[in-house]
Design brief:
By secondary structure, the protein is mainly α. The protein contains ten helices and no strands. The protein has helices at 2-51, 53-74, 94-123, 129-135, 138-165, 180-197, 200-209, 215-220, 222-236, 242-266. Helix 1 packs antiparallel against helix 3 and helix 2 runs parallel beside helix 5 (138-165).
């Protein structure tokens, strides 16, 4: 009798282990498929970015071209500025790699919403209907925040470039030899930094959902967290100028206040 029970227990345990292995294998296969699809989205996005490069380059270069033209009109005879078409590459490979880098960056921006959808598709089956309801809004909310942050970054770039260019008039007969790759990648980093930093509510909602942070804790230590936001803005802002840092930090403080309310909505209720 005891031997039969023991064999039945071993058989049940073996079946459970086999089911878990099969389930794990299925999850890994699905994860691989979704990662491959995400990589494909990135490649397709990069191809699109390569094709529309002239339009994107003109759009990103517009702030410095406008600032150059304005500086030339403002201080004639005091400063000699190259025409906008005289950007200077320091290597014959520069034009190709600039187009390639900007294409990959554009591909990443295009692919992000689709990658978020793949992530949601992988996570959603493991959530209860009650958990899916708030999480379902994460993807569009994340994209919206990224677009707002990127748009703010481009506005900041206009003001920052104009401010830096205003000092060129202090040097008579100065010539600005601007490498377009350095400038364009600087703008791209600025846009990416602002877009990612605006994901703060999404990150805090996730941490609140799993119980790592709580709204009461955020309310208690909000002064220190606001100081931390300003320090973080100073670190991640590529230009490192006070104007860009403040313009990034102020909306982030606003998003932080909103995040406290969002965390309160999704955090596990204390019994």
């Amino acid at each position: 009798m005891a031997l039969g029970l023991l064999n039945r227990f071993r058989l049940t345990l073996a079946n459970d282990n086999n089911e878990r292995r099969a389930e794990l294998t299925e999850h890994l296969a699905e994860l691989r498929t979704r990662l491959l699809r995400s990589a494909l989205y990135l490649v397709i996005g990069a191809i699109v970015g390569w094709i529309v490069f002239p339009q994107v380059y003109h759009y990103l270069a517009e702030p410095i071209l406008t600032a150059l033209a304005h500086a030339a009109r403002r201080s004639p005879g005091q400063v000699h500025i190259l025409q906008p078409s005289t950007f200077v590459f320091h290597s014959f490979t520069g034009p190709f790699f600039l187009r390639l880098k900007l294409g990959v960056f554009g591909g990443l921006v295009i692919a992000v919403p689709l990658i978020v959808m793949e992530l949601w598709g992988f996570v959603a089956p493991g959530l209860t209907p009650a958990e899916r309801k708030p999480v379902r809004m994460i993807a569009p909310f994340s994209v919206l925040l990224f677009v707002i942050g990127a748009s703010l970054a481009f506005w900041v770039m206009r003001a920052a470039v104009a401010w830096f260019m205003s000092y060129l008039g202090d040097f008579p007969n100065a010539i600005l030899l601007q490498d377009p790759e350095d400038y364009i990648m600087f703008v791209a980093k600025m846009v990416l930094a602002f877009g990612l930093m605006f994901q703060l509510p999404i990150i805090m909602m996730g941490l609140g959902k799993v119980g790592i942070i709580r709204s009461a804790m955020l309310q208690k230590y909000w002064q220190y967290l606001v100081v931390g936001i300003f320090i973080l803005a100073m670190i991640v802002t590529p230009s490192n100028d006070p104007f860009s840092m403040i313009v990034m930090a102020i909306p982030m403080v606003l998003l932080f206040v909103i995040s406290i309310w969002l965390v309160k909505l999704v955090e596990p209720k204390q019994s």
